[in-house]
Structure formats: structure tokens, C-alpha cells
Amino acid sequence: MTKFFKTGYLLIILAGLIWAGCAGTKTSKEDAYLGDWEYLVEDTPNGDVRGVMNISKEGDAFIGKLTSDMGEIELNDLAIVENKLSANFDIQGMTLDMDGTFDGPQFSGTIGVDYNTFPMTATKK
Predict the structure, then answer these.
(1) Contact, 97 vs 82, CB < 8 A?
(2) What are the sequence ranges of the domains in the chain?
(3) pLDDT digits (tens, 9 = 90+) for 68-84
(4) Domain 34-124 belongs to what architecture?
(5) Rounded Cα–Cα distance for residues 68 and 58 (Å)
(6) In sequence order, what are the beta bridge partners of 117?
(7) What pTM was estimated for this model as a whole?
(8) Quick count: other Cβ atoms within 10 Å of Cβ 79?
(9) Which of 18, 38, 88, 112 could form a disulfide with 117 if both were Cys (CB 3.0 to 4.6 A apart)?
(10) Strand pairing partners for 91?
């Protein structure tokens, strides 16, 4: 085999390894969002609310729910793009919007309804 072909063959193998490594990065980045997050929503009309936010995947879509002493609430239209979460949920006939940002094992954001917003923080369990 000539030196040209050996170099070309080595470059093809190297490119394949880099591509395989990048393909795995997307999955592991999404995995960072999955699981249980202990959350706190402050200063709501019902006082501070503590519970667990669970995020999982169903096919290519994120799904989630909030669980607290008040019960379990499904998150609708849950999307996570570049560390930013957006979702909404219905409670007592109202639709509340949830927005926030992940920073490693921390999440910070807000829950809003009408003209009120309440700060929300969470830590991955």
C-alpha cells in the first residue's frame, strides 16, 4: 500500500471516530435534563410550593410532570432547546406558563399566570 492510501485510510478512520463521538454528545446532553428535580416555587397564593419535577423522553419528545402535596400535574408542550425549558400546565381552570434555564444540576425560572410570575428553582436529585 502506498503512503497516500495509508494516510487516506487513517483520515477516514479518524473522521469516523470523531463523527461517532459527536453523535453520542447529543444523547448525553439530553440525558442531563432527564430524571427527577426537587423544585421550589416561591410566593404563590398558596405559599411556597415544593415538589418533584420529572422529565423523561417518549421517542424524540420530552414529557414531564410536577408532583407536590397538591397532586400531580402533566406538563404540556414541554420543549428543551439549548438549556432552555418552556412548558405550560393547567390548574384550577387556568393555564400557567413555565420557562427557565438549566445550568448543570441547577434549574432556575418562573411560573407565570396572567400578570403574576413566581420564581422557581430546582436541583437534580
Answers:
(1) no
(2) 1-31, 34-124
(3) 998 999 999 999 999 99
(4) Beta Barrel (2.40)
(5) 23
(6) 112
(7) 0.76
(8) 11
(9) 112
(10) 94
* Element containing residue 47 per DSSP (H, E): strand 47-58
How large is the C-alpha radius of gyration of the chain?
A: 21
Count of CB atoms situated within 10 Å of the CB of 60: 6
89 strand-pairing partners: 96
Which residue reads 437534580 in cell numbers? 124
What are the residues whose beta carbons fall under 8 Å from the beta carbon of 124, sequence distance 6 or more? 35, 36, 37, 105, 106, 107
List all residues 6 or more positions away from 2 whose beta carbon is below 8 Å from its beta carbon. Answer: none
DSSP of 51-97: EEEEEEEETTEEEEEEEETTEEEEEEEEEEETTEEEEEEEETTEEEE
Cell 402535596 identifies what position? Answer: 69
For 74-118, how does the pLDDT look when each residue is reduced to its tens digit (9 = 90+)? Answer: 999 999 999 999 999 999 899 999 999 999 999 999 999 988 999
What separation in angstroms does the CA of 34 have from each of 20, 80, 88?
22, 11, 18
CA 39 to chain centre: 13
The Cα–Cα gap between 79 and 61 comes to 8
